[in-house]
Write a structure and sequence with these properties.
211 residues, 77% helix, globular, mainly alpha
Amino acid sequence: MTGIVHFETFLLAGILLNLTPGNDTIFILVKSIGQGKKAGIVSALGIATGSFGHTMLAAFGLSVIIAKSIVLFNIIKYLGAAYLLYLGYQMLTNKTPLNIDGNIETRSADYLKIYRDGFLTNIFNPKVALFFIAFLPQFIDPTYRHTVVPFLLLGATFITTGTTWCMILALFASGIFAKLKSNRKVSSFINKLCGITLVALGIKIALTDRK
Protein backbone atom coordinates (compact mmCIF):
# COMPACT_ATOMS: atom_id res chain seq x y z
CA MET A 1 0.00 0.00 0.00
CA THR A 2 2.86 2.40 0.76
CA GLY A 3 5.02 1.20 -2.13
CA ILE A 4 7.76 -0.08 0.20
CA VAL A 5 9.22 -3.57 -0.20
CA HIS A 6 11.46 -5.55 2.18
CA PHE A 7 11.08 -2.96 4.93
CA GLU A 8 12.68 -5.21 7.57
CA THR A 9 15.80 -5.54 5.42
CA PHE A 10 15.87 -1.79 4.91
CA LEU A 11 15.56 -1.15 8.65
CA LEU A 12 18.42 -3.51 9.49
CA ALA A 13 20.64 -2.18 6.71
CA GLY A 14 19.85 1.39 7.72
CA ILE A 15 20.81 0.77 11.35
CA LEU A 16 24.08 -0.88 10.32
CA LEU A 17 24.89 2.01 8.00
CA ASN A 18 24.12 4.52 10.75
CA LEU A 19 26.50 2.69 13.08
CA THR A 20 29.29 3.03 10.52
CA PRO A 21 31.47 6.07 11.39
CA GLY A 22 31.24 8.86 8.86
CA ASN A 23 31.52 12.63 8.46
CA ASP A 24 28.38 13.29 10.52
CA THR A 25 29.66 11.07 13.32
CA ILE A 26 32.93 12.97 13.47
CA PHE A 27 31.15 16.32 13.47
CA ILE A 28 28.86 15.33 16.36
CA LEU A 29 31.77 13.95 18.38
CA VAL A 30 33.71 17.17 17.85
CA LYS A 31 30.80 19.31 19.01
CA SER A 32 29.99 17.07 21.96
CA ILE A 33 33.54 16.89 23.25
CA GLY A 34 34.29 20.51 22.46
CA GLN A 35 31.09 22.17 23.71
CA GLY A 36 29.16 19.67 25.80
CA LYS A 37 26.06 17.49 25.71
CA LYS A 38 23.54 20.08 24.51
CA ALA A 39 25.82 21.14 21.68
CA GLY A 40 26.15 17.53 20.56
CA ILE A 41 22.40 16.97 20.65
CA VAL A 42 21.69 20.20 18.77
CA SER A 43 24.29 19.35 16.11
CA ALA A 44 22.64 15.93 15.70
CA LEU A 45 19.28 17.64 15.16
CA GLY A 46 20.87 19.94 12.57
CA ILE A 47 22.30 16.95 10.72
CA ALA A 48 18.91 15.22 10.87
CA THR A 49 17.32 18.29 9.27
CA GLY A 50 19.93 18.19 6.53
CA SER A 51 19.17 14.51 5.93
CA PHE A 52 15.48 15.36 5.65
CA GLY A 53 16.41 17.93 3.02
CA HIS A 54 18.27 15.25 1.07
CA THR A 55 15.23 12.99 1.39
CA MET A 56 13.03 15.68 -0.12
CA LEU A 57 15.51 16.26 -2.94
CA ALA A 58 15.68 12.54 -3.68
CA ALA A 59 11.89 12.16 -3.48
CA PHE A 60 11.30 14.88 -6.04
CA GLY A 61 14.16 13.83 -8.31
CA LEU A 62 16.45 16.81 -7.78
CA SER A 63 19.30 14.66 -6.47
CA VAL A 64 19.51 12.99 -9.87
CA ILE A 65 20.65 16.34 -11.26
CA ILE A 66 23.47 16.42 -8.70
CA ALA A 67 24.43 12.87 -9.59
CA LYS A 68 24.65 13.67 -13.31
CA SER A 69 26.17 17.16 -13.15
CA ILE A 70 29.88 17.18 -12.35
CA VAL A 71 29.87 20.97 -12.06
CA LEU A 72 26.99 21.07 -9.56
CA PHE A 73 28.46 18.17 -7.61
CA ASN A 74 31.79 19.97 -7.28
CA ILE A 75 30.17 23.28 -6.33
CA ILE A 76 28.27 21.65 -3.48
CA LYS A 77 31.31 19.62 -2.45
CA TYR A 78 33.63 22.63 -2.25
CA LEU A 79 31.05 24.72 -0.41
CA GLY A 80 30.76 22.01 2.23
CA ALA A 81 34.54 21.60 2.45
CA ALA A 82 35.10 25.36 2.74
CA TYR A 83 32.53 25.63 5.52
CA LEU A 84 34.20 22.86 7.53
CA LEU A 85 37.59 24.47 7.01
CA TYR A 86 36.14 27.75 8.26
CA LEU A 87 34.72 26.08 11.40
CA GLY A 88 38.03 24.33 12.04
CA TYR A 89 39.96 27.58 11.61
CA GLN A 90 37.67 29.27 14.10
CA MET A 91 38.36 26.61 16.71
CA LEU A 92 42.11 26.69 16.09
CA THR A 93 42.32 30.48 16.43
CA ASN A 94 39.82 30.84 19.28
CA LYS A 95 41.68 32.03 22.38
CA THR A 96 38.74 31.39 24.68
CA PRO A 97 39.10 28.08 26.58
CA LEU A 98 36.34 25.53 26.61
CA ASN A 99 33.71 25.79 29.34
CA ILE A 100 35.37 25.15 32.65
CA ASP A 101 32.31 25.82 34.75
CA GLY A 102 29.37 23.68 33.68
CA ASN A 103 26.98 26.43 34.83
CA ILE A 104 27.98 28.69 31.95
CA GLU A 105 27.44 26.11 29.22
CA THR A 106 24.06 27.53 28.22
CA ARG A 107 25.32 31.11 28.08
CA SER A 108 28.54 30.41 26.19
CA ALA A 109 27.16 28.11 23.49
CA ASP A 110 25.24 29.51 20.53
CA TYR A 111 22.89 26.61 19.88
CA LEU A 112 21.29 28.21 16.84
CA LYS A 113 24.73 28.47 15.23
CA ILE A 114 25.55 24.87 16.20
CA TYR A 115 22.26 23.69 14.66
CA ARG A 116 23.02 25.67 11.50
CA ASP A 117 26.53 24.21 11.32
CA GLY A 118 25.16 20.66 11.56
CA PHE A 119 22.57 21.35 8.88
CA LEU A 120 24.99 23.00 6.44
CA THR A 121 27.72 20.38 6.78
CA ASN A 122 25.17 17.69 5.95
CA ILE A 123 23.25 19.46 3.18
CA PHE A 124 26.51 20.52 1.47
CA ASN A 125 27.77 16.94 1.37
CA PRO A 126 26.87 15.65 -2.11
CA LYS A 127 27.81 12.12 -1.08
CA VAL A 128 24.74 12.10 1.17
CA ALA A 129 22.53 13.09 -1.76
CA LEU A 130 23.98 10.31 -3.90
CA PHE A 131 23.50 7.85 -1.05
CA PHE A 132 19.79 8.63 -0.78
CA ILE A 133 19.11 8.21 -4.49
CA ALA A 134 21.15 4.98 -4.62
CA PHE A 135 19.95 3.33 -1.41
CA LEU A 136 16.29 4.23 -0.94
CA PRO A 137 15.04 3.18 -4.41
CA GLN A 138 16.18 -0.40 -3.72
CA PHE A 139 13.24 -0.72 -1.31
CA ILE A 140 10.54 0.96 -3.39
CA ASP A 141 8.15 -1.05 -5.55
CA PRO A 142 8.99 -0.02 -9.16
CA THR A 143 5.33 -0.47 -10.13
CA TYR A 144 4.15 1.98 -7.47
CA ARG A 145 3.05 5.24 -9.10
CA HIS A 146 3.39 7.72 -6.23
CA THR A 147 7.06 7.22 -5.34
CA VAL A 148 7.28 10.41 -3.26
CA VAL A 149 5.41 8.76 -0.37
CA PRO A 150 7.69 5.71 0.03
CA PHE A 151 10.75 7.95 -0.40
CA LEU A 152 9.60 10.14 2.47
CA LEU A 153 8.67 7.18 4.69
CA LEU A 154 11.98 5.42 4.13
CA GLY A 155 13.88 8.64 4.59
CA ALA A 156 12.06 9.39 7.84
CA THR A 157 12.83 5.90 9.12
CA PHE A 158 16.51 6.18 8.25
CA ILE A 159 16.74 9.64 9.82
CA THR A 160 15.00 8.45 13.01
CA THR A 161 17.37 5.54 13.58
CA GLY A 162 20.35 7.68 12.64
CA THR A 163 19.39 10.52 14.96
CA THR A 164 18.85 8.09 17.82
CA TRP A 165 22.37 6.76 17.35
CA CYS A 166 23.74 10.30 17.07
CA MET A 167 22.09 11.24 20.38
CA ILE A 168 23.79 8.27 22.04
CA LEU A 169 27.12 9.40 20.61
CA ALA A 170 26.56 12.94 21.84
CA LEU A 171 25.80 11.77 25.37
CA PHE A 172 28.80 9.43 25.43
CA ALA A 173 31.25 12.01 24.04
CA SER A 174 30.00 14.79 26.32
CA GLY A 175 30.54 12.45 29.27
CA ILE A 176 34.22 12.37 28.36
CA PHE A 177 34.23 16.15 28.08
CA ALA A 178 32.62 16.52 31.52
CA LYS A 179 35.52 14.62 33.12
CA LEU A 180 38.21 16.64 31.34
CA LYS A 181 36.85 20.19 31.25
CA SER A 182 38.10 21.06 34.76
CA ASN A 183 41.67 20.99 33.42
CA ARG A 184 42.35 24.15 31.41
CA LYS A 185 45.36 22.71 29.60
CA VAL A 186 43.43 19.61 28.59
CA SER A 187 40.41 21.66 27.50
CA SER A 188 42.63 23.89 25.35
CA PHE A 189 44.20 20.80 23.77
CA ILE A 190 40.72 19.39 23.04
CA ASN A 191 39.73 22.67 21.41
CA LYS A 192 42.74 22.53 19.08
CA LEU A 193 42.23 18.85 18.37
CA CYS A 194 38.60 19.47 17.42
CA GLY A 195 39.70 22.28 15.11
CA ILE A 196 42.27 20.08 13.40
CA THR A 197 39.67 17.34 13.02
CA LEU A 198 37.23 19.70 11.29
CA VAL A 199 39.97 20.95 8.96
CA ALA A 200 40.91 17.37 8.09
CA LEU A 201 37.24 16.57 7.49
CA GLY A 202 36.94 19.56 5.16
CA ILE A 203 40.00 18.41 3.20
CA LYS A 204 38.59 14.89 3.04
CA ILE A 205 35.32 16.15 1.54
CA ALA A 206 37.17 18.37 -0.93
CA LEU A 207 39.13 15.35 -2.19
CA THR A 208 36.13 13.01 -2.58
CA ASP A 209 34.73 12.09 -5.98
CA ARG A 210 31.42 10.64 -7.10
CA LYS A 211 32.52 7.01 -7.08
